[in-house]
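2 proteins. here.
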Amino acid sequence: MKKIFYITFVFAVIAMGGCKKSDLDYVPQDQLSSNSFWKTEKDATLALNACYGYFSNAYTNAYDDGSTDNAYAQYPWESNATPIAAGNINATIDQGYGSRYVYIRRYNYFLDNVAKAPLSAAVMKRFVAEAKVLRAITYYDLARIFGPVPLLKTAYAEASETAVTPTPEADVINFAISEIQSAVADLNPAIVQSGRITSGAAWAFLARIQLQYQKYGNAVISAEKVKSLGYQLFRKNTLTADDLTDDFSNYLTFANAAERDKFYKGLASYEQQFWAANELDNKELILASQNISNSSYDYGNGLRTLFPSSDLGGWSSITPTQDLVNAYWTRNGDVFTPPAANVRATNYNSGKPNAAYIDEFKNRDTRLYASILFPGTPWGRINAGYSFAWGKGGGNNSATGYNFKKLVDPSPESSQNEWDGAQDFPIIRYAEVLLAFAEAKNELIGPDATIYAALDDIRTRSGMPAVNQTAINTKEKLRDFIRNERRIELAGEGQRYSDIRRWNIAKDVMKTTYDITNSIVQTRVWDNKFMLMPYPQTAIDRNANLKTAQSTKGY
């Protein structure tokens, strides 16, 4: 299907080597010496490919949604999402601090040694640029999660060299931004190469970082750079018989055949952009974690196991909350007004939903039907005649009453492979860039035609109406609209964790979650210190300089 880029063993071995030895010492037979490596372009390519291991298994970003009001992660042994959402946060948790520094060391080693390899000037520049952007992305992730962190820019031989005072968060971010800016001109400009850092990926990440840190003017510029490169939203303009498999007539009222056609094209366009069959020519996918099935080197995409319900062989590990389901617009683009929780429980009728319960899911946003399995949802593409029925209570059933459908490829190749789905996971896609552009520009100047155009591109792709500019006509109204649109469009992709923190709304949304019978799923507690995660105790034990910063963060 595609070349896999996560060949980590060779580079991991040489990166962790470097011991001094006399001239009489022989090269060990079980590892490579840096003096015997870097002899060919292939050596340098393998070393760079190892750096891309940072994106392997990126499908676990979905757990970040489980740390928010979007989803519930019911198994605490699978991730830190369960205790984070509950507010049980302390230094026993390592939210990726240690693993990210493994890659920081790998990038630094590569950058310090790649000049030894016999590369052409153009290839050398590109390889260095890709590694610099990877390092910048990793430092961004460290800073947004932990705040101040040690800023290590060169390789080291002894662990004691890393025991330095953490650099302020703002300085780490400025370093990351400057590194990407200095690298972008040397990157490949191709737009259909989602497994590598291209110039488009670099500009897209700049927009993400600048938006996160409220550098709105710069975020607009970076997003406009991406917009000028030729990326476009994935659209399926011709329907097949398979695309019409699922009958949604119980949930949608179509005025005519054109309205029906619009819905099914929107449904296919949104959900099928994540399928393996559409990866190679998908101009929406800017950067992805690439997967193949039946690989002897690594597992594939595991969401086929983590997302679906038990009757489909899944574990219901990460499931949508009622609050996320409520966030999807009505069919005409208005805010949905949900029934009271006790009324919903009555209408659900212990698993025998009445007509009033079905009404809650009638004429809603197309992306609801593409993303969420609610009781009664048809999904014949994964199993002929299938209709979702919630099996409450244990047995790998959803704890909330809903399962994710989005990001699950229902093709036989993917649906039959536990932990080994072939589909790629989107790390950043063009829809996010359009949303970043809209949000940043609105914060700068308020509503304008280019903002509405970006939002309308996203909405019409999924068969939804354009933004009602008469109603959504102020900066404040458009801000709320964009935030909800972002939540819907990017659900399950892991962006909500940072969004609720940068918008300072976590204190309002991290509330106790309930299932559709109005039973408590998880009691959640929020403390403002949770804006940043604590350094893990293992890191503090190695670097006493972290203690003061840990205390400053409130831990």
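next one coming up
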Amino acid sequence: MLEKIREGSQGVIAKSILVLVILSFAFTGVSSYLGSSTEAAAATVNGEDISESALEQAYQSERARLEQQLGEMFQALAADDTYLASVKQSVLERLVAEKLLDQTATELGLRVSDQQIKNAIMTEPAFQTDGQFDNDRYLAILRQLGYQANTFRNMMRTDMTRRQLVASLVGSEFVLPGETSYLAGIQGQTRDIRYHIVDASPFVADAEVTDEQAQAFFDANLAQFMSPETMSLEYIELNATDMANDVAVTDAEAQAYYDENKQQYLKAEKRLAAHILVNLGDDESASKAKAEAIYSKLQAGEDFAELAKTESEDTFSGEQGGQLDWFEQGVMEPAFDDVLYSLSKGSYSTVVKTSFGYHIIKLLDVQPGAEAPFADVKDKIIAQLKDKAAVDTYYGLQQTLADVTYEVPDTLSEAASELGVEVMTSPVFTRSNAPAPFDNPDVLKAAFSTNVLLDGMNSDVIEIDANHAMVIRIKSHTTAGTVDFAKVKAGIVERLKQEQANEVAREKAQTLMSAFPDAESSTEFVTKAKLGRFEQGIDASITSKAFQMAQPADSAVVDTVALANGYAVIVLDKVNLAEGIDDNLLGALEQRLSAQYSEGDYRALIATLKAKGDVVYSSTQ
């Protein structure tokens, strides 16, 4: 949970596994902590349901994360229903794994105390100012994330309990010193080599390819010469944003709107609240009795702030004398909100029940509302009136577009005439390189649908964004197929000539290798001492081959390797032991190995729990 709030937190060893657990809160959200429902289950884990809504919420969060990470590439991927189905299935598997962990933690009796949760929050850097816990910052961040304090602490409890289980497994993993030393020795090993490149370029001119050879290659490799499916679309597009640019709003109209709606331009009244909270607990009657006892103490003259510190079960606000935050009307639960806005400054309420428990609420201070001058909000009003007029026009036109394109489904001309717009034409594109806005997944799905592609009908109205829609139909379409031989013949000829030249280079390289070391005196070799496994600067094929060759015994080892344009003869003279292995390197390797082992352990744990448990997926998954 805290990792979700603290930006940029990166761990080593265990955290690479723990993040799989911690990130669950970014996907499951608050709803899964607010009780069960009667809706259909996406999966049932040992009798406990994972609801369809929880899956959908987690899936949408994952989609948003992928879209942010992949950018425009995601739009193309999202047009593939199979890809989206795989994403949703992986999210469901993650939720199943989390449920298994939670159940196992409960069976093992793992618990997290209120004090542990408090310490975790108090020491969290995201909630600190100048190294000290800042209650105002804490509450502000919770509001930004959409959490209530109690809900957040419940989520923290689940998160930290789950961490106990995973950390106990990850913490049991270890790496032997010999493993890191061996890996460091292998990775740091260097090799002394010599190599000679036989370039194939000079042999291309002498290569000859007949028409029959080119045709035979084409016939044998038809899959390499497929042209993708392409299409061009006719479309009518409606966009309220563009319409707003054509709307004129006078200063008088803006002034009139301001005068009629002054209440919209008031700085809302805010109230600084404090409370003493008794959680509902397992025995509500006992909780209510405790709250009423505290109220009696207040009536007897005891100080509200002191009682909040000693009696309130909201320990964070309790330390501040019960102070919560400034609230506008409508922010808190209705029962709390109504009482807060009925109090006079300095007074406190009787016992009030909400979903969090029993409260005694006190009004500490009031910030009165204030009216914003017309000049300050004039531009905002004009923009608002333009948008409203454009949206009103948009919805009228959208309905006309939907009606006419449905009633006359084989042309867009009738709809264009009714709307007073032009039918536009898209460029030719493929499924994988559609320009905006045709790269929208819904547009691509409609364009390649049976109704549009095969039947030649208008699509339904497709919503691109809010107040932005279009209807499409096929303008032109070419199916995927084999490219004519004549169009690719020249490329095939060049390719076959290159292959012939490479074969000549291979034979020369083999001859040179066979004649080594006698040929060494007449052939120029490039010497590379202490070649590293990951070194840049020479062809990667040469480096890879050099580290595959056996260690020389009495004499150098010689071999050849294919390059992009020729062959290389490689002479391995010596294998050098790794240098510069220090504690820092060994420590880094130990962390990397430990993380890999821990990840394997984590996945094995989930597989074992799943195999031992009863996991049932709904038929729709």
